[in-house]
Amino acid sequence: MSRLYTSDNCSFDDVDKLMSTLQLAVHIPTFLLGLVLNLLAIRGFGAFLKKKKRQPEYIATSIYMINLAVFDLLLVLSLPFKMVLPQVDSPSPIFCTLVECLYFISMYGSVFTICFISLDRFLAIQYPILVSHLRSPRKTFAICCILWILVWIGSTPIYTFHGEVEKYKCFHNMSDGTWSAKVFFPLEIFGFLLPMGIMGFCSYRSIHILLGRPDYTQDWIRQRACIWTIATNLVIFVVSFLPVHLGFFLQFLVRNGFILECRVRQSISLFLQLSLCFSNINCCLDVFCYYFVIKEFRMGIKAHRLHSVQLVHQDTTISRG
């Protein structure tokens, strides 16, 4: 992520060379799979929105899923530049900043979208009657627009990533101001710890409520699919973003002089770059969330149709009696 203290004898060339090779092995299949899967997700949920007589909860979830797929798609589109630009010495600062912006905005856009999906689902499970009155496609779309505004505003420190560095490479050689406490701690707290806390609480409470409901009810199959969706979301979130932000914290300690030993600094640089590299697979892992959401939709629609048929049968029986 950063070539540190270039004035001393601690070299990071071996780390950078290793990561250049590994990124090719990881990013190329991630790019191809992510591009196809997220385009299919946008198409699938978009087609679902066009169908009439859908329940508001399905529409709201579909809008969130499309928003998540768009963020993932932006991340996918930034990967080729992320592989090539670090090999270029002092590229165009405007273009470099644009690509870095695209990459980190898509990352944190995914973080906030997944967090809001968990919060929305928890509220719908805990307070179904209240949420049914408050939910609407327009409000859900407005929330997604606010998420975009928030991540764009939060991206302003990216514009100064290389402000004090004469020779730099994209995604490397960040300025000292980038690793200052006033930039790092808001990013760590509001960009990860707070969303993870909200998501962890909402996921735990949602699963606890669903498991407390009686088995073999009409909606149990749908509830089981819902539990799988919640658990999958949480696992993907933690696996994708926890190592990255742990790496950010360790790099913060390095850049602020708390860790000085060369080999430790090299290990931290490698860990951070590995974490970022594998976190990009998140744009493909989200397909599991899409799968369980679609399965949940189908189970819900099937249960709704079965319930309607039973009501018609009961009405027919009563009228004949």
TrEMBL record:
Keyword Transferase: no
SUPFAM superfamilies, per database record: Family A G protein-coupled receptor-like
Compartment(s): Cell membrane
A cellular component term, taken from the record's GO annotations: plasma membrane
All copies of domain G-protein coupled receptors family 1 profile, residue ranges: 37-290
Superkingdom to which the source organism belongs: Eukaryota
Pfam families reported in the protein's UniProt record: 7tm_1 (PF00001)
Any Gene Ontology biological process: positive regulation of Rho protein signal transduction
Transmembrane segments: 24-46, 58-81, 101-119, 140-159, 183-204, 225-250, 270-293
Bilayer disposition of the protein: Multi-pass membrane protein
Family from the record: Belongs to the G-protein coupled receptor 1 family.
Identification of the protein by name: Gpr55 protein
